[in-house]
Each structure stands twice: as structure tokens, then as C-alpha cells.
Amino acid sequence: MKTILLVVLGLLVGNAYADDGSPEMKAEAKALIQGAGYKCNRVKGVYPAQFSNSFTVFCDDVYEYTIKDHGGRWIVEVND
Predict the structure, then answer these.
(1) Strand segments (E) across 1-80
(2) What is the arithmetic mean of pLDDT over 72-80?
(3) What is the distance between the alpha carbons of residues 3 and 34, in angstroms, rounded to a whole number?
(4) Beta bridge partners of 65
(5) Which residues of 53-77 are buried (b: 16+ CB within 10 A; e: fewer)?
(6) In which order are the strands placed within the sheet that holds 63-70?
(7) Collapsing DSSP states into helix, strand and coil, what is residue 43?
(8) What is the DSSP secondary structure assignment for residue 72, as one 8-state letter?
(9) Res. 2: pLDDT tops 70
(10) Among 2-6, 33-37, 57-61, 67-71, the least confident range
(11) Quick one: which of 5, 34, 57, 70 is 20 to 30 A from 24 by CA?
């Protein structure tokens, strides 16, 4: 029984990370990043955080950003 539960949980978690974001989510993330003055020509993936209202965004195979909801405003931060 424990093995079945672990396999199902692994599949659910694996599928959550396999999704790199909808086209709409990618377009919104790109617009926020560019609107903040940062470079992002092509969004490779948008991944929501598990326990906060934020997203990690990968652009152009080079850049990584975090977009956070800060009091109703979306803030873009560069991840080094």
C-alpha cells in the first residue's frame, strides 16, 4: 500500500514540474519583466512557488527572475 501511494505521489509531483506554463502565463510574465526594464525575449518556463504568491521565470536560456505579489503590485527581481 505504501509503495502505491509513493508511486502516485511521485507521478503527481512529477507532472506538476513538467508543466512550464501556459502561453498566456508566459506572455504575462514576459510583459512584466520587460515592463520592469529587464531583458526577456523568450520565456522558457514559468513555475509557481509552492507556499507564496510568486513565480520563477526563465528567459532566453540565460536569465532567471522571480515575480512576486507585493501588496497588490507585481515586483520583478533578478536571480543571480
Answers:
(1) 43-48, 54-59, 63-70, 73-78
(2) 95
(3) 46
(4) 57, 78
(5) ebbebbbeeebebebeeeeeebebe
(6) 43-48, 54-59, 63-70, 73-78
(7) strand
(8) T
(9) no
(10) 2-6
(11) 70
